[in-house]
Design goal:
Structural class: mainly alpha
Low-confidence stretches: none
Shape: elongated
Number of helices: 7
Number of domains: 1
Number of strands: 3
Helix content: over 70%
Largest sheet: 3 strands, mixed
Order of helices and strands: HHEEEHHHHH
């Protein structure tokens, strides 16, 4: 049965392995540099307030969020959400993570193109991620299992793929957004003299590890989409 197509695992496995490696890198870097006190002895919350003032972002708020490594910037309410360890501990890792999120706030304030585009497609991606797989698999059942449906089944397959493709597009747009935020973070920390000597290199290791998770997500989304396209093409050729 096509539900157990070995070809799927051939496409899914590289993305899965890369995602697992990326997660290991993130946890390893965070565990290591989360224990290293920064030279300024500033908590993440203090670093956030300092950098926001430096960048002239007086309208951005700082709030807490539950969990570990759940830190993020929400453009909707212009708020930096920091996890407890990042907000309250004066570590090198916290400094890097906070600077990265402030980088997103700067992107938002400056209407950074990829961020604006990613925000614009969110509603469509949400709809596509919920309904696209349903539409695709209805077409797949008609075309592959019952060998019925004709052009209607084929149309459902490609409509589903079109809807699902938004997930891959969103993941690809996330890459420049995240890499740019990390680049801004290093510049901000360096120009503010918050990091000294080897600390900048340590911050870079934390940010590079985090960036790899977005590379893994994009690779996984593109590989999955490629599999669905190949499957649809194969079923279309049988008609």
């Amino acid at each position: 049965m096509f539900f157990f197509d070995p070809l799927y695992f051939l496409f899914a496995l590289p993305g899965l392995l890369l995602a697992l490696y990326a997660q290991w890198r993130v946890n390893s870097a965070y565990s290591k540099y989360g224990q290293v006190r920064n030279s300024k002895n500033m908590t993440g919350e203090e670093v956030a307030a300092y950098l926001l003032r430096q960048e002239g972002l007086a309208g951005v708020n700082i709030a807490g969020t539950p969990g570990k490594l759940t830190d993020h910037y929400n453009p909707g309410d212009r708020t930096l959400y920091l996890s407890y360890d990042v907000a309250k501990k004066p570590s090198v890792a916290a400094m890097g993570i906070v600077a990265h999120e402030v980088g997103h706030a700067v992107q938002h304030a400056q209407s950074y193109g990829p961020l604006e585009l990613r925000m614009a497609i969110v509603p469509a991606v949400n709809i596509g991620s919920r309904l696209g797989f349903i539409v695709f698999f209805i077409g797949l059942i008609l075309a592959g299992w019952f060998r019925a449906g004709g052009p209607f089944a084929t149309s459902l397959l490609w409509i589903g793929i079109f809807m699902i493709s938004g997930i891959a597009l969103f993941s690809l747009l996330t890459l420049p957004v995240e890499l740019n935020a990390s680049s801004r973070a290093r510049v901000m920390l360096g120009s503010s003299a918050l990091v000294q000597g080897a600390e900048l290199g340590e911050v870079k290791k934390v940010l590079d590890a985090a960036a790899l998770t977005y590379v893994a997500a994009a690779a996984g989304a593109v590989l999955q989409l490629t599999y669905y396209v190949m499957l649809a093409m194969g079923l279309s050729r049988r008609r």
